[in-house]
Every structure is written in structure tokens, then in C-alpha cells.
Amino acid sequence: MTYLSKSPWILHYDASSCNGCDIEVLAALTPVYDVERFGIVNTGNPKHADVFLITGGINSQNVEIVKNLYEQMPNPKVVVAIGICAASGGVFRECYNVSGGIDTVIPVDVYVPGCAARPESIIDGVVTALGILEQKKLAMNVNPGTGKKSPGET
Amino acid sequence: MIPIVNAIIYILLAPIIGGLVAGIDRKVTARMQGRVGPPLLQPFYDVGKLFEKETVVVTISQNFHVLSYLVFMAVSGALFFSGGDFLLVIFAFTLSHIFLVLGAYSSYSPYSHVGAERELIQIIAYEPMIILTAVGMYLVTQSFNISDIIASSVPVIMYLPGVFVGYLMVLTIKLRKSPFDLSTSHHAHQEIVKGVTTDFSGPNLAKIEIAHWYEYVVLLGVVYLFFGFNPIIAIAAIIIAYFLEIVIDNTFSRAKWQMTLKTAWLIAGAIGIVNLATLYYLRGGVWL
Amino acid sequence: MKYEAQTTTLVEVGRLIGRVEQFRSDGCRLVQISATKNGEMYEINYSFDKDYKFENIRITIPIDQEVPSISGMYWGAFVYENEMHDLFGIQVKGINIDYKGNLIKTTIKYPFGAGAVLKGEKP
Amino acid sequence: MNELLFLIGFPAIIAILMLFIHKDKLRNYIVIPSAVIIGVASIWLLISCFNKNTILYAFPFEPASKIMYIIELLLAIFILYLGIKYRKTLTVALVLIQAGLLVFFETYLSSGMHPENNLFVDQFSIIMAMIIGIIGSLICVYALGYMDTYHKHHTEVKDRKNIFFFILFIFLSSMFGLVFSNNLLWVFFFWEVTTICSFILIGYSQTPEATNNAFLALAMNLLGGVAFMVALIYIGIIDPSGKLLELNTLIMSGQAIALVPAVLICFAGITKAALMPFSSWLVGAMVAPTPVSALLHSSTMVKAGVYIIVRFSPVLAGSLEGFLIALVGGFTFLLASSMAISQSNAKKVLAYSTIANLGLIVACAGIGTYKLMWAAILLIIFHAIAKSLLFLCVGTVENRIGSRDIDDMSGLIVRMPKIAVMMFIGIAGMFLAPFGMLISKWAAIEAFIVAPLGLLFVAILAFGGSITVFFWAKWMGKIISVPQVMERIEDTVTKEKWAVLYILAGLTVVVCLIFPLISSVLVEPFILNIYGQTAQLAQANITIMVMMLFLLMIMPFSMLFYRDGQKYVGPYMGGMTTTPTMQFTGAMGTVRDTTMGNYYLKNYFGEDKLFMIGTVLCLGILIFAVILTAGVVL
Amino acid sequence: MAFFEMAKTAIKSLIHCPATIRYPFQPAKKTPISRGHVIIDASRCISCGTCQRKCPSQAILLNKEAKTWQIDRFRCIVCNSCVETCPAKCLVMDTQYTAPVTKKSVEIVTITYVKPPKPAPATAAAGGEAKT
Amino acid sequence: MTQRIVIPFGPQHPVLPEPIHFDLVLEDEHVVEALPTIGYVHRGLERLIEKREYPEYVYIVERTCGICSFIHSLTYCQGIEQIMGIEVPERAHFLRTIWSEYSRLHSHLLWLGCFADGIGFENLFMGAWRIRESILDVLEQTTGGRVIQSSCKVGGVRRDISAEKLDQMARDLDGIQKEIEDLTTVFLQDDSIRHRLKNVGVLSKEDAYHLGAVGPTARGSGVAIDLRQTGYAAYDKLHFEAVTEKDGDCYARCAVRARELFTSIDLIKQAIAKIPEGPVDIKVTGAPNGEYFSRSEQPRGELVHYLRGNGTKFLARSRIRTPTLTNVPPLVKMIQGCELADVPVIILSIDPCIGCMER
Ligand code: SF4
Ligand code: SF4
Ligand code: SF4
Ligand code: SF4
Ligand code: SF4
Ligand code: SF4
Ligand code: SF4
Ligand code: SF4
To answer: Model ipTM?
Structure first.
């Protein structure tokens, strides 16, 4: 048991969703669902986040953004795809501008179905993600020192 | 000997107390918002978590700045609790904050940059009032030494009500509570994301958090000084003051920097100085 | 339930600006501009409203014809005109804030334009 | 006495030598050893005299005075000529008044005067001599390399380096003269020489701006000179024997006699120290090559102004006039610090900071309790070192990157790491615990709080001190905020420059460490001698400060621990990807640079507004003080 | 000057019970018509393919040869369209939402419906209706 | 020359729940330049019209946006019904109106919350969203979905609401009204909020009108455009007045929305009182042939669905012009010259909905 599962901080990004799932993510933070009970805080900043909650089917313009945000999150981290759009592109799967699911861009650890995904479902999804977070932490302990120097650094 | 023991006790205990205070704060805040809120020990889980994360930096010097921030914050707190010179404590305090600001500057993100500038504005907003607080203590107890101030059985608060009000405002800034959570914020989202802490993560962020806890204890320690004549009243005063801060946090929107600076200087300038001038007069100083 | 009465007037491209000026001086607000592909032609609708009276004027242009911008009269028209350019490939001349194809970036060029190939379709 | 004469005479001789040397190489060979000699001589002075309190020397008055009189008249004519040439009516008028007064004094008053002890040395003079001798000569060495580059960049400026170095050494010589003279007439002579030296140096580039600013400086300092002259005449009238011309006698003679000349001379000091409302000349002087600025700000010129005020501080203590002068200092401190916030030009920031600190020194001196005098002298020492270091750092950076704007210094830590670290030390030295300036401010607070009318000044310090934090810290921030990839460009800085910078940076730190020693050996005896009691910092606090200093020095080594196991990512940019040079693709598809400017808060701390306020306030106070003094006289 | 307008509500909330539903320790909010997930009564599906055609998200795949009815729950937007249009009324919208998973998969159901041999199809359909 | 600060504001930014980007150029905290980038949510759903038959396209349309999803479906259905000349039962019109107004309530409360978050008032954010949950409960109880209702269809509505439920809703609204009163008092009276909103992002009446502002953005500047006045659905049988404010600043826009909450509650109560009995849908056959600009009032303002049928089951063109799109030019004007701290406030003050804006 690590502290990771007691304090998952989330980053939420709307990668071309219809808002339905996003407002449910926000709703999960508010009094009736209050995910802060689990230590969840919506940080809004990839560098502070452990869990990447991402909604929507990702359009071309978002690909780089999503990768960038994912890259900036420190390990261990998990990605939770919220909603059907995030899982597969949903109703918009056939749209010319939708790449169809988060897993087309970055690896996804948990899929939370629903259109829109319900707050309870989002809670379940994050709880599932915590288990994976723990595993990743253990894997990191076994294989540490992934850091590398970037060029031009002094 | 005693001062050193006190300092060590502070260095060991302050994070625990500070963390608990933060935990209670979050719990009470949540309840004020009609939520259940996180467990009491949540701040410790958070910090524990952060230490488990990998270190991600923009530039390596970030580590140094944060460590210095933590170390000097602990030093200034230790100075305070070992009964040192109040002014020296304030200067050490400033020094440690400068490191936080420098850390923010070093990351070259516009968000941290604006956060750093705002942090500096906050420093110039609150510092005069803190110095005036020390001066007030001196006028009442004839010493800048914390140990002497504690030892004197004078009810400081009776002489310094205005200064105390000013100090409470400083406390709002320092605890990063709305309306004065300009440079970084614990709660509601901010136009500058997380301001000074935007580009810190993992263990570095944890250190900042611990430094905050050290800071809480010092700041509340100053509240104690006002009521030092009676420890029980003093503890009660600390609790009430902190509760008041939580209420303020929950009933204000964030002010802009102009407002912050004006309010702080006006309160420090008007209430603080008038209070001190009166005292000066009473103490037989020439006018002013 | 009431449906509102709507009028659509066909206008020649050359007279568009004159007509729009008239709407502007009549105190109408611009409701929307939109294009529709109609065979080998584009129809462009300019809709106006005043006191809930909806009026629409329509120009029809060949696929590669340029249209004049009305952003001189309605400052806010730039969003529609840029959008029209990005989605249909219609060249609009003289937009006040010209995004030059960067308002909406799409995987395929001019997805609503003639010859756009959608996902899963064969050209 | 020989040491004194050597320190005055030697630089003068070198100066004259300089006039005839046009070869850079040769000049280097002379300047460097003579700088070393001057430095060593001032240290020798310290060693030989530190434990002797005040030593008075009876140097023959008559012949020297006559020579000085002639030189002064020649200088007056020189200025008159320039004033007419450039149509500066104010300057012309002031020169005429001053010369008139001088002639009046010499013809009607001086004949009966026979001051005996014309030279003297005490701990305060030693401190000043050390500042001039070490820092001043270091700046001269630095100027060698700087002026080379300067003329390479500014081909439009005529190369008059021989005159430049001539004036530089004359400056040093006259500063030594100023601090060693016990005869006010002589002080006045050296005073005027420094005025003219600064005038020539400021106008060195001969651009219209430089010329104007030079005349501005001249006019303001001549105004002070007039006041000084009036003081001399006043002394001549009340004491025809000339005994009171001796500085030590005058100061000892008590307020009833000395207050009027003291106020007048302090007025002169205020003009020279560029307090409000006369601050504009020092800001304008920034057009001069940087070594000049460094010299004016740290070891000469403005220090002459505060030197004389601190000297008179025991006379001022407790008087309303003293309080008013202190008030001018206090407001100057507050307002100049504020104005520094609104500046992006590094040299201007330094200028305002100097003005502010001089204000603080004058505030201390004006109230003049023993504790405050102690604080004032500490301020003089620490300020001189840190400020000269900063000026020279800025000069070096400017030489290299072609800008003195702080916003252009971003990433300096990568581009010019050594300079950046030194600049860091300099800046930290100006406002952070446990460095010197902060110790002095701390001492000032503790002193003001027990001084009469002190609360006002405590409040001013509380506000002004925190304002200082803002502009220094944002400067530091700029240096270390690195826009990712940058190349290192500091290899062209010459050896002498490095040497000077290293010494100054070392001094900034070392002086902090040994400041208890300085205080107990030099400052405390001096103050004890005057007041019969002295101030010092509590032992425990000193220990803590020293510990903090060590901690600060150790902290950077923590970086060694962080070399491995770090993952590097770009800064947070709202999800935008950036190139290594921090560009991102923004709206309309344009590629944008991520630039970061500091805050200047012009609406709150703008120069114009605050300068107006300061002028009105300080001028009002000064006029009041003058009327008050006039009232005493009549 | 009106400050502390929120204080009343804040203090009231502090002393009252929080509005939070302590999910998962308490059951989730649900209504009888909440749309959770689609279930099929495989014994009644007549393999008509209407659901597949009417599904706006193409979540359903009917394989008449293999006699399987397949649903991709990571495509289904729980719109109820299939349920409403199924002629055999064999689809039902359950109120329980699909649980989050770590691997996407599709659900395949084998249709067990056997055409009643004798009666005409119309009667069969009517019979189905009568049952519900 | 002092340097300016360039901030990439968004696309990911905690005060913006949706992705939009501004290049902000600052001097100190003064915004000297602000140019928007959009397109992060553009999916291109209008072209799905060629792949979905017009009855199923409702499901796409209502997923244009998860906030006023119902009003999208309503506007679309009304457009098709007009083209096909379908007479929808009266009860369906009333139900549509009731759900529309509930959508508006939840949308406005959501906005008030986000807005409070934008000015750093966390408790108020929580307060607004707490009340909003009771609105969502009603929506879920009557439609089966919290945010995506799926209740409108061409020819009527999919579900009826029982008389008892309607009564209960009317009763519950009294309690909700009380809570909303407390909430809006804070928004409109608290001086720390007024300090952040008054005279921030001022939009004059002329600018509002000619730049194409709609909805509360226009009404906050005194332009009384409220498409409900055209009397679609059952609005022609209900009485209400468009809420307007004069000042055109963020405070005025906030006040408009705060006051509209009460209009909506009142409209729902009127509708519940007047709702006739009867069926809620009719069977639709055939395919639309013709065109229509179907307009309605969303929480953010005037929505236009341009529909063009060609006699087949697949429409020839669907074009959705949403209020946010037309509110962008006023936003660009307002944001020039404000303070950094005002940027999120001004952006949020038009209640941007990027999801529907970019489709
Ligand atoms: S899953 Fe549904 S509700 Fe969620 S974003 Fe996609 S369409 Fe919207
Ligand atoms: S992230 Fe902050 S503002 Fe947002 S819901 Fe959580 S606590 Fe509130
Ligand atoms: S750096 Fe600039 S000011 Fe200095 S010498 Fe070169 S060009 Fe002149
Ligand atoms: S219901 Fe429970 S939580 Fe709420 S007030 Fe009562 S005891 Fe406390
Ligand atoms: S509920 Fe809707 S999306 Fe899901 S299978 Fe049925 S028709 Fe398809
Ligand atoms: S589930 Fe219903 S609609 Fe689908 S194939 Fe079976 S019978 Fe037909
Ligand atoms: S609708 Fe838009 S502005 Fe409102 S909460 Fe959702 S994302 Fe934010
Ligand atoms: S305006 Fe916004 S809330 Fe309304 S339908 Fe469009 S996206 Fe949704």
C-alpha cells in the first residue's frame, strides 16, 4: 500500500468532447459526490497530477496537446478515458476530425463507459485506476532511474 | 541549552502540527461547502504521495531553490521558537520566500513567472505589517527577543489591537487564503494555474508543502505572542483566528493585486501605525 | 406553437455588399453566415434579424469564385467568413481578422468542400 | 601624516602622468601597479592608525590655501567658459555667485584666519580611505578593459582615454583630500574638485544628452557649493580667528554655534548625495561609461555628501533641523526605492537604489543618536562594496550583450555564469539576510525605535525595506530564468576585469563575515569617542547570521545531489508544445516567442508621479529648514 | 459595504449534514428510468437487425448466420434507440451503468430464439407482446 | 524597451473547463493583445447528416453539447417538423418547454458555479453546483439521463411525465427557489464579488447589437433579444419578459443570468399549471424536403439550426450556428485592455460553450 492511492490528484482535459462528460467530471468534485473524500483534487496542472481524466474523441488539433500534457505528468501516472467518446470516439467516431478514442494517441489504463459517464461511474473509474497506479509504482521501484538529460541542459 | 532544545523540538514537531492544521482546514472548509471533505490526515497522504513520485524538473536549479526555501523556512521557525530576535526571524523568513520566488522564476513558464511577480507584490504588501508587529511587540515589552516577549506577562493584545487586526490580514495573505491568494492557491482555480508552484512536482512540491507547514506554525506562533500572558487564552485565540481565516477564505472572491496592495498598505499604514503611535505616546515618547 | 415567417432572397454576388449595407443601415443584426454545397455550386446564406423578423439573402457562386467580405459592415462577421474558408475552401476577400486557414484546423482540407473525402470513404 | 600626503599626492601624480599616455598597453602597465599601491597604502594607513583615535596634523595653512584658491578660480573660469559656450545660464549664474563669495571670503575674511590642524585622520576617515583606496582603485583597473570595449562599440565618441584616466585619478586624490582635511576651507576645495571631475566624466561621450546631464549635475552641485561657501563665510564672521574652520573644533563646539554651518553644509551634502529633490543629477549621470557610475555611486562623489553629513551628525542630533534633514533622507529612501520598481534599465535601478540608501544614511545621520550613527557608517561600508560590484557586473554584461536592460538579462546564469553568480551575490548583498545592507537596516530599525520621533522612520523603513525586496528579487529572477537553450558568451571578458570582480564579490561576502571585527575595531571606537557610548549587535545574533551565511554558501552544493534521476520536461504552457527555444504556435498559426518581462507597476510606482511628490515634499522640508536656520542667524 | 454575504450559508453548511452521497459506501443515485446499459433477452430476439440499423453509434452487430448478437459497450451511447425500435421488445434498458474496465471488449450473445414452427409470424409477435 | 509577457492561455487551463486558447500579451498584468485560437473541439458532426437518417440524427444533434443538449434536439426537431408540416400534440410542446427551462436552470447554475470558480470563490462554486444537482435529479427522474436527455424526437417527445410527478416538481421548485435566492444574493450583493465584476469587460449596447451578441451577453448590455418571445414550443402560451440589464459589464451579465433563474422557475410553474392532457407524439412518415432556419433560445442565447432536406431520409445540410460562436467577436472586443485577472472572468462571462461552438 502506498500513499499514491490515498491522494490521487487529477488533471482533466476536454479533448473534443461534447461537455457532457466534462460537466460530470466537475460534478464529481462538488458536494453531492465530493471526490475529495478520497483525497482527489482537481489540480488543473499536469505537473501535479497523477491521474489524467480525459474526455472526448480527440481531434487532430488536440493530439499534440494531449501528448504534451501526458508527457509533463510525472511517473507513476494513469490515464482514465471518460465517456464513450474517449473510449472509442462514440457517436462521433465517423467524423472526419475525430481520431476515435484516447488510446489512438496515448496509452489508456481505464475506460469509463457512459454517455455521459455518470459521476459514480467516474468515481469507480478513478478507484480502478488507483490499483493500476500502485502497480506502476511497484514497477518503478524495480526499475528506477528512467530520467535522462535533455540536450542543452546545464 | 533550552533554546536549542526548543529549536529542535520545533523542527521535528512543526510539520506534524502544520500538517494537522492543514488537514483540519480542509475538513472544515469542505463542511462549509456542504461536503464531507478529505480525511484529517490527507495533507500527510498528499506529501507522502508526492515523495513517491518521480522528480520532474524544467531546470535542475529548481531543486536547489526549493530545498533552500524549506531549509530557511525551518531556520526562521527554529529561530522563532528558540526565542531569537523577532526581526531576524522576519528577515530569515523573507530570505526563504525569496528562494521560493527564485524557484518559480527559474522554470521559465509564464505562469510561474506571473506567480513569482505576484508573490513579490504580496511580500511588499505584507512585510511592512509584520515589521510593525515586531515593532509593536518591542514597544510593549521593550525587547525584540521572542523569549523576552513571551516572558513578559504583559497582555500584549491590550496594547496592540490594531496591530493584531493588521496581522490577521497578513495571515490571510500568508496562509494563501481568498481574497489574497494571488500567487498560488490551495483551492479555487486561478488564472495563473498554480502560480509559483506551477512547475514544481513530486518531491519538490512536497518540500514546498512541508515548508508551508513550518510557516503555519510560525505564523500562528506570532498570534500566540499577542496573548502570551495566558497560554490557554492564547491557544483559544489561535483557534479562533484560524477559524476566522477559514470563514474569510470561504466568503470572499479573489482580489486583484492592486486591491491586495492597497488594502494591505492601508490597514498596515492606518490601523497599525495609528495603534503604534498611540502606544508611543502613552509610553512617553515624543509625538508619533 | 408558432413558426416564424422567413424570407430568402437571391442576390447577385456583385450586389451583395450593397444589400448588406442596407441591412446594416436598417438596424438589422447579423444572425449568421453559412455555406451549403449544392451540386457544383456553393450557396451562401446571410441571415439578418430585426425585432424577430428573420430575413435571409443568398448568393450562389461557382466553387472557385471569391466572395467579398462583409466584415467591414459587421465586424463580427470574421468568425463566419474564416469558418467558411476553413470548412469549404471559399476564398473571402478582405476579412478584417483573417486567420488564413487557421481558425479551425481539420484533418482533411476543406471537409465540407467539393471533393472532400470523409473517413471510410473512397475518393 | 606622510601616509595622508602620499594618498592625496600619489594619485594626483599618476593622474598627471595619465594625461600624457596615449598607448593602451603602457597605460595598463601604470594603472594596475599604481592601483595596487593606492590600495596597499590605504591598508597601511589602517594598520598604522586604527588604534589611535583622532590624530590631528598641523600642516602649513597659508601656502596650500593660496594654491587651492588659485586653482578654484581657474576652475571657475573654466566652467564659466563652458557654461557660456553651451548657454547654461543657471550654471553661469551659480559659478559667478560662488566665485564671488569665494573672492569675498578670501579678501575680507581669510587674512586673519590661522587654523592649525589642517589634516587629520580618525577611524571614520580610515574607513572612507579604505573605500576610496580599495574600491576606487579597483574601479580604475576595471575601467581599463571597459573603456577599450566602450570605444570599440561607440566609434562616434572621441577617444579621450588619457583625459578620462586623468580625471579618474584626480577624483581619487581629491576624495582622499576631502576625508583627510580638517580644515573646512580645504574640504570645500576638494569638494569642488570632485564636482568638476564628475562633471567632466558624465559629459565624457559629448553627446547632447551627456552634456545636458553633466550640466545638470554641475548646477545642482554648484548650488550645494554655494551653500557650503555661505557656511564658510558664516564661520568666518562669527569666528575671525579661523579656529572654527577646523572640523573637529566646529563639531565639538556644540549646537549653538555649529548648527547653522552644519545645516548649510548638510544642504551641500544633500545635493552631492543626490537626495530628493536633487536626485535627478545622479540618475542623469547614468549616461556616463559604467566605471564612472560605479565610482560616483560607491566610493566617491555621493559618498562625499553623506560623509560630511555623518560628520556633522552629532551637531544635528536632537535638533529640529536635524529632524528635517532626516526627514528628507527618509522620504528619499521611501520614494527612490519605489521608483526603482518602475525601472527596467539596470543602471537606473542601481541609481535609485543608491539614492534610496543615501537617503537612509542621511536619515540616520540627521537623527544622529550613537546607534544611528553606527548604522549609518555600516551602511556606507556595505553599500560601497555591493554597489560597485553590481555596477561593474552590469558594465561587463552590457559590454557583452549590448544592453543594460534587466529584461534582456534573462538566462544570464547560462550565458555568463560567473558574472551572474557575482551579480547574484551583489544583489543579495543589497537586501537579503544575512548580508551587510540588511544587517545595517536592521540596526537602523533597532536604533530608530528608541530615538526621538523614531516611529515615523521605523514605518518608513518597514515600507521602504520591503519595497526594495521587489525590485531586487525580480532582477535576480530574470538572471536565473533560462529560456531553455542559450550559449555561453562570457569568454571575452579580460583578466583584469575578472580580477576586479572576484575581489569585489569576495569582499561582499568577507566583509559580512568580518563585520563584527570592523565594527569593534573601527566603528565602535569612533562612536565611543564622540558619544561616550556605542552600539553593537548582540553576540547571539551575530553567531546566527554567520551560521546563515555559511548555510547559504553550502546550499548550492546540494545541486550535486540532483545530477541524476531527474526527468526534464518543458515548462507548463497550457498544453502547448514548445520548441527548445520556447516558441509555440499561437493564434492565426503564427509562431510566437515566449517572452517574459518583469512587472514595473508604472501606475503605482511611476517615476514622474513619485518624483513630483518627492520634489514637493523634500523641497518643502528643505526650504522650511533653511528658513529656520535663517531665523537662527538673524 | 456588504461582505461576508456567504457566511450565513457557509456556517449553516458547517453545522448541517453534508449533501454528499457517500458513494460507494452508499448506493448510487438512480431512478427507475435511468439509462444504464442495454440487455437482451436472447431467447426472444428475432434477428431482424432493426436495432443495428437504428443504432446511431453502430454499437450493435448482428450476425444472422452465426446467430449472435453483439454489443460494443464502448460504443453504446445508451440512447435507448434500439430498445424503442426493437419489434420483438427483447431489449431492455437496465438502470445499472456499465462498470469501468481496463481492457475494452465486446459482448457477444448467442441468440437462442427458435421460430415457433406453426403459427404465422404476426401471431408470434402478438404473443410476445402479451407476455410483457 | 521593457519586455512583454506572452502567455499561452489554454487550451488546457484549469479555469477553462473546455479547450480554447488565447495568446495573451501582457504588460505587467495589463492585456495588450489577446487573440483566440479555436478548433480544439471541432469534430465535424454536421457531416454525419449524410450517414444518419434524420430521426437518428437527433442523437447526434443532442450530443453537440452536453449542457443544452435538450434544446439542440428540440430546435432540430422543430425544424424538421416545420419542413414536413407535422402538427405535434400540444402536450409535447409543453413538455419540451418544461425540459428546456430545466436545462436552462441547470446550465445557468453550472455557469454561476464556474464563474465563481473563475473569480476564486470556491464555496460559491460548490453552492451553485449543489443546487444544480436537484435540477439534474428532476431531469433524470423524468428523462432517464442527467445531462443527455434523449427525450425529444421528430413528432413529439419520447416520454411523458405523470401528473403526480408534475405536481411534485412544482412543489419542489419552491424549495429550490429559496436556495437560489440565497445564492444569487451573494452574487449580486457581496462587495468582494462586485469589485471583481463591476466595470469589467464592458460591452456597450451598440457594440453588443452590431457585433452580434446574443443571449445574456446581449441582454446584459440592454439589448432585449430573447428568442422565446417568438413563441415556439409552448412559449406563446406562457407569459414572461426578457431580463435585461443596462451596464454591459460582467456584473450585468451575471445579474441577467441570476434573474433568469427565477424567470425559468416561473415559466416551469406556468407550464405545469397549463399543460393539457393528451398524447405526446405522433407517428411520422416520409422524409423532409425543403429548408428552414430553426431558431430557439438557449441558455447562452439564440441558436440557429439550418436544415435542408432533399426528400430522402438523409438531409442535404445541417448547419448549427450556436450562441457562443456569435458571442466570440464581442468577447474579442471586451478582452482588449483588461487585466490578467479579468481574462477568465470576461471569457466566462459570455458563458462560452466551445463544444457546440465548434461542433
Ligand atoms: S461520451 Fe457522450 S456525453 Fe461524453 S463526451 Fe461523448 S458524446 Fe458527450
Ligand atoms: S479543483 Fe479546486 S476549485 Fe476545482 S473543484 Fe477542486 S477544490 Fe474546487
Ligand atoms: S555595451 Fe552598449 S553602452 Fe556599453 S559600450 Fe557597448 S554599446 Fe556602449
Ligand atoms: S446527520 Fe450526521 S453528519 Fe449530519 S449533522 Fe447529523 S450527525 Fe452530523
Ligand atoms: S442504446 Fe443506443 S447506442 Fe446503445 S446500442 Fe442501443 S441504439 Fe445503440
Ligand atoms: S434485438 Fe430486437 S431489433 Fe435487434 S435484432 Fe433482435 S429483435 Fe431485432
Ligand atoms: S459549458 Fe463550457 S463554460 Fe460551462 S462548464 Fe462546461 S465547459 Fe465550462
Ligand atoms: S450553447 Fe453551449 S450549452 Fe448550449 S447547446 Fe451549445 S454547447 Fe451546449
So the answer is: 0.85
